[in-house]
Design brief:
Main location: other
Number of strands: 19
InterPro entries: Peptide/Ni-bd (IPR030678), SBP_5 (IPR039424), SBP_5_dom (IPR000914)
Keywords: Signal, Transport
Structural class: alpha+beta
Pfam family, one: SBP_bac_5
Subcellular location: Cell envelope
Strand content: 15-25%
Length: about 550
């Protein structure tokens, strides 16, 4: 066999040919090893990252494809190790009072922003106040409500300077809570809680995230951002652990379609591809086994119903009928086949300590479920002779489309006529947040390893509450769990909250996520973990071949 050139690899793959016609003798990095690119002599890591980021302001992001980048740029007080454990970040140590209400964080000495400006505790105060300011509309703001006055600040009742955070000196941050929090350390490890360069934001305003303006605290700086093309990061020489960073450059590519990402990986054009197409999973197992990493993560794939007045699915009888008629095992086994866990629950099973709730029909036969579903639809005035027209929305991805088509087929016997609508991720989630949908595809990946992270999303005042659920009963359960110090009592409250979602058919859960990524075997430092956190500062490429 004659050697395969990089151009030949790229051409054959970018032509959109089926993988079955590609030369199977090429291994996971066959084309990559033939490529004479700069990444072979330099530490250049290229990542097929999913969607185009809507923002690189860490307090304006809400997707995993965005937080992967902001995690590289901004280090919080508490960071993640390579295997997803909490470790000191910008704070070298911290402690709390005996009652759990007063926390003190001690910043490392000599911290600087990437532009050389001293990084102080005042930057941390500024960031937390900004995070809770109503105009910021931070996606996870309610997770910080244990901080004194956080809710009042976030709702505009109090000024940001009333938030329970202070900087008694340049290296010390204090946080005062109104009640103990089981999740404070995890929330402070999110990139949205990282200190921000107040001097840049004050000078540049909304333009502070442009490459020429941005000052960062993490392992990397923003070199270039070419929208819909690529984002390039280079090492931050002023990072407190700069001598441990091996990569010379990280390139994030906005490749939403998993087939395209697979093609780019096969061509040696990316070293990491997040997400693989289910239709080719078996082929990948057989031919790219050394690169394929599949494991459970804290994530849930589900659909949300629009509960607002005027929505056809505001009627719970219809929502329950759709849940009853959904054959989760068919989706898992025949469409996906990657080891996903069918969901008769909402909080992922990978969160082992959570006492999970369950649909009351989980053990029914399919015949019994369909009979009940038809009865409910008839009660609501619909059936094959009086069809219900529903619009099903999903963000653009081939596997999402396959699932949406399957749902339409499963619901057809009930007299439901489904119209499919798809948009790119940023538009899709924006429209869901605005309530501009009837039934919408949703995915939730945990930002903290706690059931509260999933369940709090449906509180009345949470910006993630796409269904528009407004329930004093549910809100009371979430509020009680947020304040509860006893572990057993808190778990029961969270169980009851999850059961409420299921009993009222607020969601249509389909399966617990597993993550399947392609990672070039030449990469070291990648460790599977339930939060699927892989900071680039730990990664390294073997360029010896």
């Amino acid at each position: 066999m004659s050697p395969t050139s990089p151009m030949q690899c790229a051409a054959s793959l970018s032509a959109g040919l089926l993988l079955s016609v590609l030369p199977l003798s090429l291994g996971a990095s066959g084309c990559a090893m033939a490529a004479e690119s700069s990444s072979q002599s330099e530490q250049i890591l290229r990542i097929a990252n999913g969607a185009e980021p809507g923002s690189l302001d860490p307090q304006q992001t809400n997707g995993t494809w965005e937080t992967r980048i902001t995690r590289d740029l901004f280090e919080p007080l508490i960071a993640y190790s390579a295997n997803g454990e909490l470790i000191p970040g910008l704070a070298e140590r911290w402690e709390s009072s005996a009652d759990g209400l007063s926390w003190t964080f001690h910043l490392r000495e000599g911290l600087e922003w990437s532009d050389g400006t001293p990084l102080t505790a005042e930057d941390a105060v500024f960031a937390l106040r900004r995070l809770l300011t109503p105009a910021t509309a931070a996606h996870n703001a309610t997770l910080y409500y244990p901080i004194v006055n956080a809710r009042a600040v976030n709702t505009g009742a109090l000024a940001p300077d009333q938030l329970g955070v202070a900087a008694p000196d340049a290296q010390t941050l204090t946080i005062t809570l109104s009640h103990p929090s089981a999740t404070l350390e995890q929330t402070l490890a999110m990139s949205e809680a990282a200190p921000l360069p107040r001097h840049v934001i004050a000078a540049k305003g909304a333009d502070w995230t442009r490459p020429a303006n941005m000052a960062t605290s993490g392992a990397f700086v923003l070199k270039t951002w070419s929208p819909q093309a690529e984002i390039r990061l280079t090492p931050n020489p002023r990072y407190h652990a700069a001598d441990t960073v091996a990569l010379d450059e990280v390139v994030y590519l906005p490749i939403e379609e998993s087939h395209a990402a697979l093609n780019r990986f096969r061509a040696g054009e990316v070293e990491i591809a997040y997400g693989v197409p289910a239709s080719h999973y078996t082929w990948i197992q057989d031919n790219l086994a050394a690169a394929l990493l599949t494991y459970p993560i804290l994530g849930e794939y589900f659909y949300v119903f629009n509960l607002r007045d005027g929505s056809p699915v505001a009627d719970q009888r219809i929502r329950r009928a759709l849940n009853l008629a959904t054959r989760r095992e068919v989706i898992i086994e025949r469409i996906l086949g990657m080891g996903q866990i069918p969901s008769w629950h909402f909080v992922p099973k990978a969160l082992g300590e959570h006492q999970g709730a369950r649909f009351d029909f989980a053990d029914w036969s399919m015949d019994r479920r369909m009979a009940k579903a038809r009865e409910l639809m008839a009660d609501a005035g619909y059936g094959p002779d009086a069809p219900l027209e529903l619009t099903l929305r999903y963000n653009t991805l081939e596997d999402h489309k396959k699932i949406a088509v399957a749902l339409g087929a499963m619901w057809k016997p009930l007299g439901v006529k489904v119209t499919l609508t798809n948009t790119e991720a940023a538009v899709h989630y924006r429209d869901l947040a605005l309530g501009d949908f009837e039934v919408g595809r949703y995915g939730m990946i945990a930002t903290i390893a706690d059931a509260y992270d999933f369940l709090n999303a449906f509180s009345s005042d949470n910006t993630s509450n796409a269904p528009g659920l407004s329930s004093p009963t549910y809100d009371a359960l979430i509020e009680a769990a947020a304040r509860e110090g006893d572990v057993g009592t808190r778990q029961r409250q969270l169980h009851d909250a999850e059961q409420y979602l299921l009993d009222n058919d607020v969601v249509l859960p389909l399966y617990d996520y597993v993550t399947s990524s392609l990672v070039d075997p030449a990469i070291s430092g990648w460790a599977p973990n339930a939060l699927d956190v892989h900071p680039s500062r730990y990664l390294q490429l073997d360029t010896s071949h």
